[in-house]
Design a protein that fits this description.
With about 1000 residues, the chain is mostly beta strands. The chain has a 22-stranded antiparallel beta barrel. It has a four-stranded antiparallel sheet with strand order 3-2-5-6, with no helix packed on it. Strand 41 and strand 42 form a beta hairpin. The longest helix has 13 residues. The protein starts with 6 loop residues before the first strand and ends with a strand. About 40% of the residues are buried.
């Protein structure tokens, strides 16, 4: 038997270098032979090696491989594996698959777990603010549970949804807990987004949730608590003395043609109407309406791996009280995922997410009057109860409207509650070493109920009659993706991709009722006495798709990728239901060429380019149909009246996207990414005016194009890196230009408070359209606007001043969209101390401060409180007053009408977040049976620097029935937040 080499067993154990926990499923092979083994659940292995000396090669995905010299028969070997941070960040989830970062051919941004760990936001938009070039994030409301609005590379549609498509764990849609988010990938160009076809016009955000890490079961607990305060910006209202003196000045103003002693006569009148006792009546409405609000977040997770199963379970409870009285939000979330390895070929994954939430919202008018009510009004009676005020009340009420928001809030209820469940089933079967079948499926359902109730004893909006409405919404649906994926190599050539199909269906059921006239104390619909209304609707939606992608890689230097998706949507007429969405992209990784192989300066250089088409069918389920509305207005009998004009030719909006980019890495410390893009969205879905003979004012049609062109830059650097100290910087900026073309005519859209915007060929989207304010006439104190003089050909030839608002000329005066925005973020580590500072900036947009029309109103509304006049503001005092900025109250006709007087620069710079933390030494943590403990404090919305005069330059960028993009209008204020967080690992 001398012809056979003698082998001897070697035993040992593999653990993680980070926490010394055993690692299961690690491959242990003998170098130069085919012998090998895999570690068990305890990290243990036994492998036979040739007698004498040998080398073990220990490998596991996501960890650096390690070679260990051994001698045959050796026992008790301990091997520690270190996480390969570079490899972990290299794998990027894109589309329906994953790629290494050096293989990417399209514009993709990844926000890793490390950059999210200190984020305390409750929504995806705020988590990403300032971290992704080209992503515009606006916190348009500070209400409990409110999410930020996000737009990627500008706004590319007028009526379709412009929020990016959210994909959770590889499946479109779904619910998630911010505590469970592992990483976020943003797909920007068609090279990456075309695989989502008609749902990806506004870009794609892919959320990857946490899964099991290697080793025995690990637990993580996080406890956060703190408070919020309302941020009123520059909306500083007057106190009783300031308001008294302000109104007194109205009577001192010079009146053209009046006798010299006129102001004395008027002052006598003023004192009769405004007794001096008002100076001592100083009620602070904002202080009593907005309070410091506590916030709590509790999170617990468990995860682990065995030879057969990977599992993760996370649970959280989140509660925030609103800064405006009687508002709140709370949510309970439970998430579990498990991947069972039936064999080397078959894995089955089960994910479930349960979420329940409830809260109390608010009535806009309550916030409105908390600003406008005068300090001379006391809302409480002698017993400290909020006063009910109406026309018969003996209580003196100085404010214009008889509304006491403290009384209304106490006697109203704007509650909502909801439940959401998602169940995902995934199957991964390796048919051969190069062909895999994957099936990902999700069943989802949600139920939401909203109630608005106003008691009959709450005066104001509903005139003391009482009001109630309820809306119940049930949504349920299915998503199923079936793909065959291939990946094989032929020498220097690599080919990968997939082909398959996708199916999505959903149904929504709505039912609601409302009515007026309620007995006090009853909150049920069946007791209303008038204005009863019952409504309901059902919508069903189906999308079926074929999709494919092919990726080619030559020598890891030259990359080519192509994809095609063919969608069929039930939202269109049968002849227009299908559309194709192709893309092609390529990249050259020049740093892998021989001429850069040993370059000590350039460690990465890649050139990218892509072209593709995406679309949108987000127009509702019945825009192409002729519709009738059922009504009971005809002698209480049910009848149908025409509601919508049919258009069977209505089809997809389509976006043609071109992108060119470059990625540069220098000194292994500095990374630069630059992308230049042009996106043309054609066949916009518009409501186009119809001839009078048609009988309808408008019809849904495809017309017009929106072109977005821009450049975006992302820079990340490691400025200092030593054993004890580290400093990293991330900087993003993007410039975007937006133009309209192909519109059938100028379209003027008038939103809330008669604030107009115009859609014009060659113009910008959300362009404000109003007269220009030219200040005050120095001789008369009257307001002055610009009047344009046109010739017979309709061309502007001159301009002149006018104090007649009816003669003032509407003009394009600026867009609500910014010229550029970005973020500047720095993180510092000194030993176990960490500090992160995140900032965000926005420049070049206009914001109409509608609040000022009421709170800087030149005496038009003397029964509204006013803001403190800004520095440099001066009310006109007499003929020749060239320093006046505000008109005479006696000669201010129409001065508060829509004009650029209230159109302000919306640029701002904000310190978004400051986070400071300390990680206890391991020895300290072990004394309390923990593997790790981190204590941190964070502050959000620390400070905003802006010249904007008003409540907040962050305003909605979403058109709506009662919302105009770029209009600031007594919103629920954003909040400053302060949190203490403790993280336990055990």
């Amino acid at each position: 038997m001398q012809g056979f080499s003698q082998t001897l067993p070697v035993t040992g154990r593999v653990v993680s270098a980070l926490d010394k926990q055993p690692m299961a499923g690690v491959t242990v092979s003998v170098k130069g032979t085919t012998a090998g083994a895999m570690t068990n659940i305890n990290g243990e292995f036994t492998v036979n090696v040739p007698a004498g000396k040998a080398t073990l090669v220990v490998r596991f995905l996501g960890y650096l491989p390690k070679e260990v010299p051994v001698t045959g028969g050796q026992t008790g070997i301990q091997v520690q594996l270190t996480e390969d941070v570079q490899q972990l960040t290299d794998v990027v989830v894109v589309g329906y698959t994953s790629k290494k970062q050096n293989e990417l051919t399209s514009a993709v941004s990844v926000v890793s777990a490390n950059k999210l760990k200190d984020v305390t936001a409750n929504d995806i938009g705020t988590m990403l603010q300032g971290k992704v070039a080209g992503l515009n994030v606006v916190n348009s409301s500070g209400a409990p549970g409110a999410a930020a609005e996000i737009r990627l590379r500008g706004v590319s549609s007028v009526n379709a949804n412009q929020s990016p498509l959210i994909v959770v764990d590889g499946i479109i849609g779904g619910n998630y807990d911010p505590n469970d988010v592992e990483s976020i990938t943003v797909l920007k160009d068609a090279g990456a987004t075309a695989l989502y076809g008609s749902q990806a016009n506004a870009g794609v955000v892919i959320i990857t949730t946490k899964t099991a890490k290697q080793g025995e079961t690990r637990f993580e607990a996080k406890i956060s608590t703190g408070f919020r305060t309302a941020d009123f910006g520059k909306m500083k209202v007057m106190n009783s003395n300031e308001l008294y003196d302000y109104q007194k000045e109205f009577y001192r103003d010079y009146i053209v043609g009046a006798p010299d002693n006129s102001y004395k006569i008027d002052l006598v009148k003023f004192y009769n109407e405004r007794p001096l006792s008002l100076r001592s009546q100083d009620y602070n409405w904002s202080k009593e309406s907005f309070k410091k609000a506590p916030i709590y977040n509790f999170y617990l997770s468990a995860s682990g791996k065995t030879e057969k199963n990977d599992y993760y379970v996370g649970a959280s409870y989140y509660k925030e009280k609103g800064t405006f009285i009687n508002t709140n939000f709370e949510r309970v979330n439970l998430r579990g995922n498990s991947t069972y390895h039936f064999s080397k070929k078959l894995d089955v994954t089960n994910n479930i997410n349960l979420s329940a939430s409830q809260g109390k919202s608010y009535d806009y008018m309550d916030v409105y009057y908390s600003f406008l009510n005068m300090p001379w009004d006391n809302p409480y009676d002698a017993n400290g109860q909020p006063i009910y005020v109406d026309g018969n009340s003996t209580f003196k009420w100085w404010s214009r409207d008889k509304i006491n928001p403290l009384n209304t809030v106490k006697n109203s209820d704007h509650s909502y509650k909801g439940f959401n469940v998602n169940y995902d089933l995934g199957i991964n079967y390796r048919i051969t070493n190069w062909l895999t079948f994957t099936s990902t499926n999700r069943v989802a359902a949600s139920f939401d109920k909203g109630t608005n109730y106003v008691s009959p004893i709450a005066a104001g909006t509903y005139h003391g009659t009482g009001y109630i409405d309820e809306l119940n919404t049930l949504n349920y649906g299915l998503i199923s993706n079936q793909l065959f994926k291939f990946d094989f190599k032929m020498g220097d050539h690599s080919l990968s991709g997939f082909v398959g199909g996708a199916f999505e269906t959903s149904k929504s059921e709505y039912s609601g009722a409302s009515g007026k006239g309620l007995p006090e104390g009853l909150k049920v619909l069946n007791v209303v006495s008038n204005n009863q209304l019952v409504n309901g609707a059902n919508n069903k939606y189906i999308l079926q798709s074929l999709l494919s992608q092919v990726n080619y890689n030559y020598k890891n230097k030259y990359f080519l990728s192509g994809s095609f998706r063919y969608d069929g949507s039930s939202n269109f007429a049968p002849s227009k239901q299908y559309g194709g969405f192709p893309s092609i992209s390529a990249a050259w990784l020049a740093s892998n060429e021989d001429f850069l192989a040993d370059n000590n300066i350039i460690n990465n250089l890649k050139l990218r380019g892509s072209y593709g088409i995406t679309g949108t069918q987000d127009i509702g389920a019945s825009r192409y149909l002729g519709l009738f509305s059922l009504t009971t207005q005809y002698n209480s009998l049910v009848g149908a009246v025409p509601y919508q004009l049919a258009n069977p030719n209505l089809t997809w909006e389509s976006k043609r996207q071109i992108n060119a980019g470059i990625d540069i890495g220098l000194f292994k410390r500095l990374n630069l990414t630059v992308d230049v893009y042009r996106n043309d969205t054609k066949d916009l879905l518009l409501q186009v005016s119809q001839p009078l003979s048609v009988g309808f004012e408008t019809r849904w049609e495809n017309a017009g194009t929106v072109v977005n062109k821009g450049i975006e830059v992302g820079i990340s650097s490691t400025n200092v890196l030593t054993k004890d100290f580290e400093w990293n910087t991330d900087f993003t900026i993007n410039f975007n230009n937006n133009k309209l073309s192909g519109f059938p005519s100028d379209i003027i859209k008038t939103g809330s408070w008669s604030i107009s915007q115009i859609y014009r060929n060659g113009g910008d989207l959300f362009e404000f359209y109003m007269p220009k304010w030219l200040g005050v006439d120095a001789q008369t104190g009257a307001p002055v606007w610009e009047k344009i003089i046109y010739n017979t050909d309709g061309k502007a030839v001159a301009s002149e001043k006018t104090s007649d608002y009816a003669q003032a000329t509407n003009q394009e005066v600026g867009s609500a969209l910014p010229k550029f925005q970005g973020g500047f973020n720095n993180s510092f580590r000194y030993k176990s101390f960490n500090l992160r500072v995140s900032t965000y900036f926005n420049y070049g947009n206009k914001v109409f401060s509608n609040n000022l029309r009421f709170m800087m109103n030149d005496g038009h509304e003397p029964y509204y409180n006013q803001i403190k006049l800004p520095d440099g503001a001066k009310i006109w005092s007499g003929p020749g007053d060239t320093q006046a900025t505000e008109p005479s109250p006696q000669n201010s006709a129409n001065s508060t009408e829509t004009s650029t007087r209230y159109l302000k620069d919306g640029s701002y710079f904000t310190i978004r977040n400051i986070a400071f933390s300390y990680t206890l030494p391991t020895a300290w943590a072990q004394k309390i049976a923990m593997k790790g403990v981190t204590v941190g404090v964070t502050a959000d919305n620390v400070a905003t620097f802006s010249n904007f005069l008003g409540q907040d330059p962050q305003t909605t960028i979403t058109p709506g029935s009662f919302a105009t993009p770029g209009v600031s209008d007594f919103k629920y204020p954003n909040n400053r937040q302060y949190l203490l967080t403790v993280n336990f690992n055990f």
